[in-house]
């Protein structure tokens, strides 16, 4: 059975395959591949609606006045269920099987064909992969229209791309690197895919710029680079300054006009290179040769709205469909990309042993024997080992101290019973710089006269120490040394080569001129104790990322035991080996990416109804009162997503119960207190 919807009544009914009805029969119409010379009388339209039962193609008649403008990819206004809605024309056909007269399209919003055939197919594939709707995904792919930007003329510049002498040398530092570079330079890069773990003391943006020049030098093709934030975009754009005239920048912090203007530059061929944040993965460039995704584990590469897609996986879908070269890089390596390597879908690019032995930092961790002899060292926030690394490093230049938490004292607890200190609203209590009275981090109300609800004690102690308090402590320990701190609300982008203590949170570390003379990771042991699936992967990403900022063979101190696997990976500079170990452990436990997971959020009765309609072989973790996890074999992932889409559309059309939110391939899939139960 398949769903069909009538745009007049906005109702869905079930039709047997090949059946007849007064409503439109659903079909998966053509993308945008159509001979534009043909004057076919019926337009196929995707309307702008998040409702799952309306996630399909509708047929509309084309009036003679709009015939010339009605080309696939243009924005239109159509009448649907008695009101005007926006939509995209995705094709033109000769006849419709609706069974009744078609309504005409009201007007064409713009003659600009903003939804290309390739992007239309990509949006559909992403919606299917994540059990979402076309409308929700296309909002990320096509920015809102801005008439003034659309009226401008965009010239196609003639830019002479030159490969620099050091470009090939940089990629000779990696296994399989010369092969990748050679294929891109020769233009023979069809279905070339690499998973790249960055080399020590070798800036990642220089590596990417080398590949971009190689991909653009001998072809009329284009390239897309997707980065976590606007600062990274600026770094790469500066490195590729000679390509400024043919580079489009797409970031989330641009205003509507500038973002649409840069989008049109890529669409009209004025830009052969697109550098941007998450949504740039959908950039409408022609003849795409290379896609690069850097730091694929960064949270900012996950779309925060339904259907919660990830830029890395969208790039993989686009590479598979179009055959363009794909490079996914990271300071460490994710288990998802390691699985691609083990399946043979991509090749591993890791630093050679010669580069590691000459450039990798000298890692010092807590020795188990020393901790056994000195009990105080086990609880010290700055053990003697880290203190001496800071002292020696300051003789040569700046020293980076990475702290996992921002603020001053972000979390407090009862000094006697260690219970978390909470406000009456339930928010945690913390202290900002210069404060004496703790304040709620949620409502901002000072907690004067606080007392513990469990033991009645009125004294507080710190659970976590932030970057501001750490800077204060180091300032007292090294009174004659400048102390610089950087965090999300007040970030420093760069520091000089002069000796200084640089206290920063992960991702906010400034780039030091010539690299850091030493690196210290504080509170490392606590970062490994969080009850999350991604905790070790995230720790590896943070610590390898800090190590990349150090000079060759710089001392690196970490306040975690040396027997921890992630610490051993740092010692050997073996991110692929660590990812391989993590992947094997997840395979034994039946966890992603070896399995496909979908998290269902909603009322218990609605979740049970969805589960009862699933026919794909699966098992369930939960359900709890608000969520559950559906697990299937990886090869059944597409079937699970397809069934969840159909079930959501059927339930929404029948108005049975409340909607159930579906998150496929979630960032953190393990729900608290979930337990496996048998599936009926």
Structure description:
The chain has 21 helices and 31 strands. The chain has 680 residues and is of the alpha/beta class. It has 4 domains: 112 residues, no CATH class; 191 residues, P-loop containing nucleotide triphosphate hydrolases (Rossmann fold, 3-Layer(aba) Sandwich), CATH 3.40.50.300; 227 residues, no CATH class; 88 residues, Alpha-Beta Plaits. Helix 8 links the parallel strand 10 and strand 11. Helix 1 packs across helix 9 and helix 4 packs across helix 6. It starts with a strand and ends with a strand. 48% of the residues are buried. The N terminus and C terminus are likely disordered.
Q: What are the low-pLDDT stretches, counting only 5+ consecutive residues below 50?
A: 1-37, 671-680
- Give the N-terminus to C-terminus distance in angstroms: 22 Å
Strand content is 15-25%
Note the main sheet: 7 strands, parallel
What structural class results from the helix and strand content? alpha/beta
Biggest sheet, strands in spatial order?
A: 10-11-9-12-13-8-14
**Helix count, DSSP H or I runs of 4 or more residues:** 21
